[in-house]
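In this supplementary section we document a worked example of the pipeline. Step one takes a protein sequence of length 188 as its only input; no multiple sequence alignment statistics are reported here. Step two produces a three-dimensional model, which step three serialises into structure tokens for compact storage. The input and output of this example are shown verbatim.
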Amino acid sequence: MTDKKEEEAKALLDRLGTERKELEAKLDDVQKETHDAIVDVLMARTLGPSEVARRVQYDRQHVARIAKKAGVPPLREATVVSRAKASVPKEPRAAVTPPRQQVTQAIPEPLDLSGISPEVADLSAPRVRELAASAENREPKWVAEIREEHPGADGLRLCYLIVDTGFRMGRKPPELADRPSTEKEATG
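The serialised model returned by step three reads:
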């Protein structure tokens, strides 16, 4: 008797598994046909996205995703506000700290400006970055040589090295052009 029940159970599960696969295949076909119809209706502007969503019993956002993926143009042009929102990345919100909890931040290491002329060392970090970027645009090979000479330098230190090398070669930024070089003062 056990063998008979076992065979019946296997036959039942096999039949149901086969039916499930057939229904899934049919569901995939119906879903593809529905998506194609949604795209056709929205492209023809016969119905709006909300009406389409109600008819096919999909979420409105899902209909919008189907339309966007298929390249359906929006019903109306983007507004100035929506364009501005799209172009400005959202800033992450600061974590709220519970009361009496101390928030600590890493203290940045002081920048090593050894070997940098005092005139260049007195320039602000943003100005040094700007000058280094300008030098790299004008003289990429020259800047590449500086990078090779100072493989351990990175970030702001490298920018100071680039500007200082240019300064020593006589390429002075406008704010330093009227100042005499300390090297010339020391030798002359």
